[in-house]
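Structure Section — protein described below
Tokens — whole-number codes for backbone shape
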Amino acid sequence: MHDTLFEPLSLGAIEAKNRIIMAPLTRGRSTQPGSIPNEMMATYYRQRAGAGLIISEATGISVEGLGWPAAPGIWSDEQVEGWKLVTDAVHEEGGKIVLQMWHMGRLVHPDFLGGNPPVSASATKAPGHAHTFEGRKDYEQSRELSVEEIARVVGDYRLAAENAKKAGFDGVQLHGANGYLVDQFLRDSTNLREDEYGGSPENRTRFLREVLSALIDVWGADRVSVRLSPNGETQGCDDSDPAATFGAAAKVVQDLGLGFLELREPGPEGTFGATDVPKQSPLIRTIYKGPLVLNSDYTPEEAVADIEADRCDAVSWGRDFISNPDLPERFRLGAELQPNVNVPQSWYLPGPEGYIDYPMLTKTDETASA
């Protein structure tokens, strides 16, 4: 069943055994202090190594860029050693995993920064509340990065990419979606700059291009990818002309020859900015000619239809992978999916509950589904 989903696919230099990609999922289980990956995280990823490719949870490239309680980082030697537990576990099961690189920009609360303001493309303030170790707090005004500081942030990405290589990943993905720093530079509601990083869509993609170029220096283009969310408002980040902005971004991805591009296009019920804005993936598909991965609330049948219609080459699943560690096998057998429990509490709370305690299919289940 769903044979199309089980055809192998080259995502640049990464050979995926199927087209069922595990989307990046923030789970908040790293060891504190230090944001260090641990054995429990290794178990979690090992359980899900049946994916054609795992894209890791969003991972902070620096102290400045990480503002989510117990999310992991990739700037210290201790974090590198922790991630080795994860990559070894995935590889032992025959899986592939890339690291998603994250700078949250204005969505970092000053509590994570010793009271200092967060940084962004421009001095703006996000709506709503930040998650902190002390509970929810209002976001605060960010400060604009200087041109010199932008170069320093690009250097932070480069160091994180080098650390990801030391940790044994198969590649890296730049988090350019969901209203975080790269997105804050891309969209004109959050990028109010009048220098070479602001104004036209081409200028607003300059930061994206510079970061990707740094990652390519470390990994080669065929092991670098990017996630974009070419939709409506997301965490207070919006754009007046998504087609122009994300068309320019797709041209950067094409020019640099990235291994693949992942697009998050939520519908009216989606998280991080539900939207009924027209999807930009058809336009982007005409600009970027490499492998395209689409994401957001797909059924297996919808994924097969989009792959066979050449709207994409693979689909990434997020929430279904939380409660179904053997999601590809369930798709293959047409087995029932397990629902998430204690949602959304178990997504982010510490401990194994709702994290590594979801059961796999048994032989009896497989027989009943066959």
User: Anything to note?
Assistant: The chain has 13 helices and 14 strands. The first strand starts at residue 9 and ends at 11.
